[in-house]
Amino acid sequence: MTDSSYPIGIPGQPWGAEQIGEWRSRQSRQRRYGEDVVPRIDALAARYEKLAYGRLDYAGETYTLLALRDRAFDPALPTALVTGGVHGYETSGVMGVLEFLERHAAFYSGKINLLAVPCVSPWAYERINRWNYDAVDPNRNFRADGPAQEAVALIALIRSVEAGFLLHIDLHETTDSDESEFRPALAARDGEPYEPGEIPDGFYLVDDSANPQPAFQQAIISAVEQVTHIAPPDPRGEIIGSPVVAPGVIAYSLAELGLATSITGARYTTITEVYPDSPRTTPAECIDAQVAAVRAALDYALAHP
């Protein structure tokens, strides 16, 4: 595909309000945040404090942004943030947070303060899309004055937490639709040529190039490879255009790119990426991989505070 084949806009010209409106008109609700996610959060509220930390109102469609945290934050303990659904279409991120909370989080009670946000972008979750209602990618806009309401609300939640963060793990997916839809849409929106890329087959992590934690990343890779396969580097020694710094690990400058894992100042940060479209895995296995990553991240951080 080239930029001229995307059905919205004029090649070489960034979108304006008309093109964003046309893009928006093509987005249909395919699933329900209120049916898939909110009831599971409500069920967990018997064990955790449910926080309504923001509200989205997109053309009359409203979404309450929800988090769960330990009922008694102990200032003597470290604090961990677990997030999913920054990109709403990345299903195993949302389900991985919920699955971890339901099945494994109790093990960490009294060891670490947990704050979890299962679905940062509910409008995009319902449309199975990367962007929000305004055709903005929240995960390139995590700044307090940014254009993504989802990101601004999460930053405000983090700033309300008095304890410092030891860990932030953010659960993501890479899918075939990245290459068939979302990257071409990005090029069209920005008036730039579309350069085809490659989808890595397997799980990988994104470390922070400004604060590399190689042993932490390797501990997660070692746990996840017991569940699903790790993405190999391409012939250039890269994954999605970035050099592989260790098996299954690449590194970005998180703050420079405005990524979610830049907002806590945590010592340990990572972004997970699973590939549910691989013939070598299943959606259920990808959720299990996300849960294994969260557990390994917590275990390592607690052992190396």
Strand content: 15-25%
Distance between the termini: 47 Å
- What is the count of DSSP helices, taking H or I runs of 4+ residues? 10
Q: What are the segments in which pLDDT stays under 50 over at least 5 consecutive residues?
A: none
CATH fold title: Aminopeptidase
Order of the strands making up the biggest sheet:
1-2-4-3-5-10-6-9
CATH superfamily: Zn peptidases
Number of strands: 10
Could you describe the largest sheet, including whether it forms a barrel?
8 strands, mixed
CATH class label: Alpha Beta
Q: Percentage of helical residues?
A: 25-40%
CATH architectural designation = 3-Layer(aba) Sandwich
Alpha-beta content class:
alpha/beta
| Radius of gyration from CA coordinates | 19 Å
Overall 3D geometry?
Answer: globular
Mean pLDDT: 96
Number of domains: 1
Element order: H for helix, E for strand = HHHEEEHEHHEHEHEEEHEH
Describe it:
Residues 29-305 form the Peptidase M14 domain. Belongs to the peptidase M14 family. This is M14 family metallocarboxypeptidase. InterPro entries: Peptidase_M14. The chain is α/β, with parallel strands linked by helices and 305 residues long. It has one domain (33-173, 199-303): Zn peptidases (Aminopeptidase, 3-Layer(aba) Sandwich). It has helices spanning 17-25, 33-36, 38-44, 91-103, 122-127, 149-160, 176-190, 214-224, 254-257, 283-303; strands spanning 49-58, 61-69, 79-84, 113-117, 165-173, 204-208, 238-239, 242-243, 249-252, 268-274. An eight-stranded mixed β-sheet has the order 1-2-4-3-5-10-6-9, with helices on both faces. Strands 7-8 form a two-stranded antiparallel sheet. A hairpin with a 2-residue loop joins strand 7 (238-239) and strand 8.
